[in-house]
Amino acid sequence: MPELAIGPRFARTLWANPACGDRDSWRKRMPEASASPKVTPAAGAAHPGPPPQAEDGGERVKPPRHVAIIMDGNGRWAKERGLPRGEGHRRGVEALRRTVRAVGELGIEILTIYSFSSENWSRPATEITDLMGLLRRFIRKDLAELDNNNVRVRIIGERRNLEPEIGRLLDEAEELTRNNSGLLLVVAFNYGGRQEIARAAERIASLVAAGAMKPGDVTAHVVMSHLDAPDLPDPDLVIRTSGEQRLSNFLLWQSAYSELVFVPTYWPDFDRAALDNAIAEYRRRERRFGGLRRVMAP
């Protein structure tokens, strides 16, 4: 079974060779992040200036500004251990707590998590009930700690037709942390990338029908401005756990030029080492954004 797949643009797999070993040994083999990647601005972009200096005079490497994670593998983690799927989801919440802390320590500004997709409603009713219970407990138990740690919570996704209690909890999470200035935790709940683009198209169509906009005025920028969170930068790095290599309807518009890193670890086992290795791989990428001049990841 492959160990760590790199984004499809690179069309390579670090662990295709069976001699690479088992699923849990990949961290030990991953090279450390480069201490001082060279940055070349894209054509027309502002020059980034000299790299920041560490106290010892060396270059300090910046983390990606926005990291998005598809938290996958809870059910398979539980199945391999003879446990109910609900236990996998509960351990997944623990992994989320670890990841939020680690992201904050690394100085990453925005973390977007795929917590519940539009398609997840097709799962068994018992699993849906368990997941909603976990959401309730997470907000009631963890929200105060997030607030104390200056984390701001923001929800993206479709809120129409949600249970009133769930809607109130999501509103509460946003309202309580609205004025915080630290890490921005974006929770994609009842979210689908195609559905988000369809909602944007619906809003634009309403403007055109009302005469407030002409069809010829619709540009990519206009579509972007009607997405769920148009003020946020696109993710620099998208991580998916469990070894699956697809986006599964997550941030389809925003991830057009994101770097994709697929790790074999099931989400409940995702930890600081796995995050560090994903970021190290991101830093080795050359980002061109459709141009010819390379822009090394920060």
How would you describe this protein?
It is a single chain. The chain is of the alpha/beta class. It has a domain at 61-192 and 235-250 and 258-287: Decaprenyl diphosphate synthase-like (Undecaprenyl pyrophosphate synthetase), CATH 3.40.1180. It has 8 helices and 9 strands. It has a 7-stranded mixed sheet with strand order 1-7-6-2-3-5-4, sandwiched between helices. Strands 8-9 form a two-stranded antiparallel ribbon. Helix 5 (164-177) links the parallel strand 4 (152-156) and strand 5. Helix 2 packs across helix 3 (85-106) and helix 4 (125-148) packs parallel to helix 5. It is globular and about 60 Å long. Mean pLDDT is 82; it is low at 1-60.
Put the structure in a nutshell:
The chain has 298 residues and is an alpha/beta fold.
CATH fold type of the domain at 61-192 and 235-250 and 258-287? Undecaprenyl pyrophosphate synthetase
Number of helices: 8
Please give the number of β-strands: 9
CATH architectural type of the domain at 61-192 and 235-250 and 258-287: 3-Layer(aba) Sandwich
Gyration radius from CA atoms, angstroms: 20 Å
Question: What is the end-to-end distance?
Answer: 31 Å
Overall pLDDT level? 82
**Pairing-aware structural class of the strands and helices?**
alpha/beta
Instruction: Note the run of SSEs as H and E.
Output: EHEHHEHEHEHHEEHEE
* Widest beta sheet: strand line-up: 1-7-6-2-3-5-4
Gross geometry: globular
Low-confidence stretches: 1-60
Give the oligomeric state. single chain
Tell me what portion of residues adopts beta-strand conformation. 5-15%
Classified in CATH, the superfamily of the domain at 61-192 and 235-250 and 258-287 is Decaprenyl diphosphate synthase-like
Proportion in helices: 25-40%
User: Could you give a short account of the major beta sheet?
Assistant: 7 strands, mixed
CATH class of the domain at 61-192 and 235-250 and 258-287, named Alpha Beta
